[in-house]
Amino acid sequence: MRRLYKTLQGEIFAIPGRNIAVVFFLFLCFLPLMTTQPFILRIATFASIYAIFAASWDLLYGYTGQMNLGHALFFGISAYTSALLNHHFGLPPWITVPIGALVAVLTGSVVAIPAMRIRGIFLALATLAFPIVMTGIVFVFPDLTGGELGISGIAPLARSRVATYYITLFVMLVSIGIMWKMTDVKSKKIRLGIILLAIREDEVTARASGINTIRYKLLAFCLSGFFAGIAGGLYVHVMKIAGPSTLELMTSINPIVWTVFGGIGTIYGPVTGVYILFPLVEFLRVVQEIRTLLFALLVIAILLLMPEGIGVWIRDKAECKCPRCKLVNFATRQICRACGAQLHLAKKSQH
Amino acid sequence: MIKTILVNGIMIAGVYALLASGFSLIFGVARIISLAQTAFYMVAAYATFILTSQLGLNVPLSALLSVALTTIFGVGVYWLCIDRIREHETTVILVTVALAIFFQECLILKFGLYQKSVPQFIEGFFEILGTRVSYQYVIALLVVVAVLLGIWLLLYKTKLGLATRAVAQDREVANLMGIKVRKMCMGAFGLAVALAAIGGAVVAPIYSLDPYMWMHPLLMICAIVVLGGLGSAIGSVIGALIMGYVETLVVFLVPMGSFVKTAVALIIMIVVLMVRPEGLFGVTFEEERL
Fold first, then answer.
1. How many domains does chain A have?
2. Interface of A with B in 116-175 (CB under 8 A)
3. Reported ipTM
């Protein structure tokens, strides 16, 4: 108990970013105790789902540098798979969602084949095409997919709203935890994060250092597809309808907006972005007519002011790395909490 | 049937060629992916609509005016929004998409979701090989060809074009040679917007206008520039011809073709990419210096 408290004090209470994360986590856990309004719970549920979706995009771009402008493909394919399985075979959500995610993994490996050959901006423009092609396929088989109207009458995730909320929250926390741990650059045991970063920075050098870049890029696509697939499956069972809107351009653009807003290449960035932007946009429904207009303006304004993203911006303001021992401190401290070195010395001498 | 396909295909291909060469030009010179390119096409079409229907000007004059106004507007947007975030690749893509959505929403607010139409330059048609071809198509096609030739002359026969190509090849060295890189980027963006605006103004009398008209051409020009090779002018034109005809063929020959026309065109792009990753006329850029 004492040791646990010591670890908590050293690893969490002393670092501002983690403080915020813990407070936010507790807030999410106790949200249904504070309010059970359907509107707010619904927003929180969808925010959890979209957090997984946005983080899976970040895994692919922020870490591996593979720009995917068609991320809706994974989301939509998993959504349709789950919906079809549930609709025709009556399988429960806890089977359909994983199967949907696995189909998304398969799709990820298919998409990865052209991605092996093309790079950077070409890849971005090519991936833009995939969900559109899929939408075409959906429209060609209206008997199976329901065409424009989609598949409705899908079993809900749980009976009550609160239970649905807790399930999505739990899945979100586990998924984000897995993604965060897997891509932890400082980790000595799991080297995936640092390898993916190496591929992003310089693919040729990474290959020259003995990294099988093709295998790791494939892995990144599959992982990203898996988590996006989970998000898609959950979405269908919460929304109770799977339509072509899961494949449209905005579904691909949204995770990018959230991620860039929160901070690219951080995993916590997209989560921050979703939990700030998504509720904001939902509350803008009050002014239905100019909602999208305001959203577009907001995105432009934020990106012009903070091109690095709000998550990174807050972290830079609140945290301060000790120049001597590289330990993270509160920015308000004068001296480092471990070694006692002056924290703001470098900045002062600049002025 | 074949003649209708030929005529319609070349019209679509011409507009795509204008849009795609502008897109390619911006990428080549400024290294910006401007997804707002087709939004300016829409803005110009709507500007023509406003000038003709609401202010009562005659059609050719309002088309000219709308091109000029849209170009000025585009340069203003570049100066205000894009110039300062030019270095952040993803941010630029997002901002340009947001701009496109912004224009779309403004137009919905002002004109609603209904389709609008603009009167033709000259009424009437003549017959070639038994197919009716309206004068408007001929004018539009002539304008497109003339503009593409003009761009080619500008890029390859003038000092300004030389500077533009120098910046596209190597920014740092171009800068050292005394070329104002920032101004060239702005100029390239303005030129691309002008191309899109000309496209918008000439097709306004042919197609109907609606606030979502930017989305489909955007996907198509993405496919075209990837197919033709990003940064290659001739590639854009050839790519536009291929995609324009593929689209028309699918619409006319395949049942439910209008649903799958984009899908088929994009599948062709993916197949080409698998075989030739740099596109048909690809210019492979050297890795940029950091």
1. 1
2. 117-118, 121-122, 124-126, 128-130, 132-133, 135-137, 139-140
3. 0.75
